[in-house]
Write a structure and sequence with these properties.
The protein has about 325 residues and is of the alpha/beta class. The chain has 13 helices and 13 strands. The chain has three domains: about 130 residues, Winged helix-like DNA-binding domain superfamily/Winged helix DNA-binding domain (Arc Repressor Mutant, subunit A), CATH 1.10.10.10; about 100 residues, Rossmann fold; about 90 residues, 3-Layer(aba) Sandwich (Rossmann fold), CATH 3.40.50. About 45% of the residues lie in helices and about 15% in strands. This is GntR family transcriptional regulator. Keywords: DNA-binding, Transcription, Transcription regulation.
């Protein structure tokens, strides 16, 4: 699809934000195959101009879709749709939805019901119908954009089964009034060892429990790295360089010191290209693995993270103590 063929719409009268409208339309187009892997999207300026909105809104949407593993953003090359398992899952989800939506719209129009009004009211119906929603723990996960935040989010959801919302430290200045708004919809704040002190400082003043969790690497991967020849050049790549440094740090902690480690972020264009070209082996976090494997299949391996057992136990204990409203019984989680 050429970038000038992309036609989206925004309706300021809808109860959904413009950000959500654009994001969901793009996911729909990708999920139904109208936008294919490898297709380049319009620049933020182009799409913003065509919709009559601020370019920062489009940048935010593109960044969110990148963080979900659906887009790649490269300076000088633009924004492209990824390929891989996440796109495949989106396709498998959206295709049956598309068939059902077409039938529903046809039936609504046959009955003289405005489809937009129907689907907006349908959201209210779903929220009211979901009687179990009030018992789900509402979790706020705080991390930075540099680390593999999708991994932590998946693990929190797996262990606790709650509704997890991710917020990035870069978006939370110390004087932000947004923190109080976030906490009004949150039962528990979870962060990682990487940012425990920062998060506690930001949220501690609100008398809200902050759970700190950590991760490590699978032992099998450490054994493979230990078997590499002395002096081997090994790249550790995550969403940002800080994430790559964390990965390399776990290898050093295991006593592996005979390799030459380089920490790189996905956002470091030329440095990343050099690493892919010159390293003997590259270990990629789950958040960047699909992209790097497609670019250098012969040398890229997955860096298999896992939640620390103590962290998993901590989350399980808090979930077990939570009452029907998602808060610990008798403040047992404080």
């Amino acid at each position: 699809m050429e970038s000038d063929e992309l036609i989206l719409q925004v309706d300021p009268h809808l109860t959904f934000s413009v950000n959500a409208q654009i994001k969901e339309q793009l996911k729909w187009l990708i999920g139904t195959g109208r936008i294919q892997p490898g297709d380049r999207l319009p620049s933020a300026n182009q799409l913003a101009d065509s919709l009559g909105i601020n370019r920062n809104t489009v940048n935010l949407v593109y960044t969110q879709l990148r963080d979900e593993g659906l887009l790649d953003m490269h300076k000088g090359r633009g924004t492209e749709v990824r390929s891989g398992a996440k796109i495949d899952r989106l396709r498998s989800d959206r295709e049956p939805m598309s068939r059902l939506a077409e039938k529903t719209v046809e039936e609504a129009e046959r009955m003289g019901i405005d489809p937009t009004a129907f689907f907006t009211a349908g959201l209210a119906y779903i929220l009211l119908r979901d009687t179990g929603a009030s018992s789900r723990v509402r979790l706020l996960f705080v991390e930075c954009r540099q680390h593999d935040h999708p991994f932590y989010r998946r693990e929190i959801e797996r262990v606790m089964g709650g509704d997890v919302r991710t917020v990035f430290l870069e978006d939370l200045p110390a004087d932000s009034g947004r923190i109080a708004d976030l906490l009004a919809q949150t039962d528990l704040v979870v962060t990682t060892l990487n940012h425990a002190e920062e998060t506690k400082e930001l949220f501690g003043r609100y008398d809200r429990k902050v759970l700190v969790i950590g991760a490590t690497v699978e032992a099998a991967a450490l054994l493979d790295i230990a078997r590499l020849e002395a002096g081997s050049s090994v790249g550790f790549v995550c969403l940002g360089r800080a994430g790559g440094e964390w990965m390399a740090g776990r290898v050093r902690d295991a006593g592996i010191a005979h390799i030459r480690a380089e920490s790189v972020g996905l956002d470091e264009g030329e440095r990343l290209e050099s690493c892919l070209a010159n390293a003997d082996k590259v270990y990629a976090s789950g958040a960047v693995f699909d992209e790097l494997k497609a670019r250098a299949a012969d040398k890229v391996e997955l860096y298999p993270m896992k939640l620390e057992m103590s962290s998993e136990s901590l989350l399980e204990e808090w979930a077990a103590s939570a009452g029907p409203g998602g808060r610990p019984r008798e403040n047992g989680g404080r």
